[in-house]
Amino acid sequence: MQKLIIVFSFICIAATASAQETATGSDYKTAIGLKYYPFSITAKTFLKQNTAVEGLLSFWNYGTRVTGLYEFYSSINGVDGLKWYAGPGVHIGFWNNTWTDKYPTRDGGVQFGVDGVIGLDYKIKNAPIDVSLDWQPSFTFVGYNYFEGGWGGIGVRYTF
Question: Going by C-beta distance under 8 Å and a sequence separation of 6 or more, which residues neighbour residue 37?
């Protein structure tokens, strides 16, 4: 999995070099759907042609987490509907008993931290479907200090 993330990161960086100087915007305004890993309900809306906010409600084996991301978009030359994006974010989460039994904390099972995201977004032409592939590293510094580099994945959303 880590090798896949590293390769994907290099592809995104290479795509950045060939991206247009200015973003041409998105082919949709708002989208809702599902993302995996971890399993998440996701909603995204564009604020401007090249910026969006995304919210994620994630469920994983150690609890739940709510994440907010601010994403910057740019088109990739030669492929209609394909864009790369990156941006910062924050999360707040709640550990379940499996986690708190394994890693006792003084914070009552609450976590808080910062996130980043880098990915690709493809709006399928003539269909209300958007597909994304991203990497979402995060660092939790309240609740238990740790870096999480294994989140991100494939998202499928209904657009409108």
Answer: 150, 151, 152, 153
Q: What does pLDDT average to over the chain?
A: 85
Q: Is the pTM of this model over 0.85?
A: no
φ, ψ (nearest 5 deg) of residue 150: -105, 5
CA nearest 22: which of 79, 88, 70, 83? 83
Whether residue 120 is predicted with pLDDT greater than 50 in this model: the reply is yes
CA distances from 53 to 20, 64, 79, 85, 99 (A): 21, 20, 23, 11, 29
CB atoms within 10 A of CB 36: 12
Q: Hey, what domains does the chain have and what are their CATH numbers?
A: 2-159 (2.40.160.20)
- Which tokens hold the place of 95? 């550990």
Q: Tens of pLDDT along 25-56?
A: 458 999 999 999 999 999 999 999 999 999 99
End-to-end CA distance of the chain: 33
DSSP 57: E
